[in-house]
Amino acid sequence: MPELPEVEVVRAGLEPAVTGATAASVTVFDERSLRRHDGPSEDFIDRLTGRLFLTPRRRGKFLWIPLGGPADEALERAAGLTPDLHASGIGSGEALVAHLGMSGQVLLRDRSTDDRLTRIRIELDHPDHGALRLNFVDQRIFGSMAIDSMLPTVDQPAHAVPSQVAHIARDPLDPFFDDAKFLRALKAKRTTVKRALLDQTLVSGIGNIYADEALWAARVHYNQPTESLSRARAVRLLAEVRAVFAKALAEGGTSFDAQYLNVNGESGYFAHSLNVYGQQGNACPRCGREVVREQFMNRGSHFCPFCQRV
After folding, report:
1. 54-67 pLDDT, tens per residue?
2. What is the C-alpha end-to-end distance of the chain, expressed in Å?
3. N or C: which end of the chain has fewer CB within 10 A?
């Protein structure tokens, strides 16, 4: 499952190519990739064709492109990208939402390039970059695209998110993330620390890989009760989450196979920097003891029993 760094790499790759572009045509090859869209493929195609793409945005693992309407397009063409539309992310009040699921990929191509297992194709016209193609490729079809309405956020009403994303908490790299609020909520959660980290209504963007890596870096056992986690250790854990994210972003995300690719079809390299995730049986980089894997929520937790104790 792509986590925050992978989705942010995709968002950053899309930004210069799609911002200010217009959807010239839309083709839906598999309606299963519209499972989160409220309407048939014809509705999706009609509502997206001719729309202006604003700056791509992200919250946690969700990615969306705010859409401008015809009036916005004329304004953009005449005066460049208008600060009010792009700063708020509201645009015309709708957005193209992409959820990558387990194997979804958003790939930028020229008009002559096809990708196997393309489920949705969007032909783009950009005033600077010319004709482009955006392919939504998904092997297992757990991901989706949808046109969704935008809602003001509770804590920053001038900014908006798609309705499908409204229940998702801010992530630790969000400039409006409230550290004190998160630490209070973590203390009151009455669960174990890894379960809390994976709760997207508490903090978004953290999946199994980066939870294991941050917990190892902070020397916290995944099964540590949140109510017994000291504030100092909680502060350090949050700092390590951010550090792990920053390192993964610098290396382009984590790839174990062709399931995760950035917009240019390239794999990330953070998998080569993992300390405990997938390293069971190997020596802990810090103490030299053996890293172990235990079953956890239908997946696995990787940790060092010596460095990370309850």
Report:
1. 999 999 888 999 99
2. 28
3. C
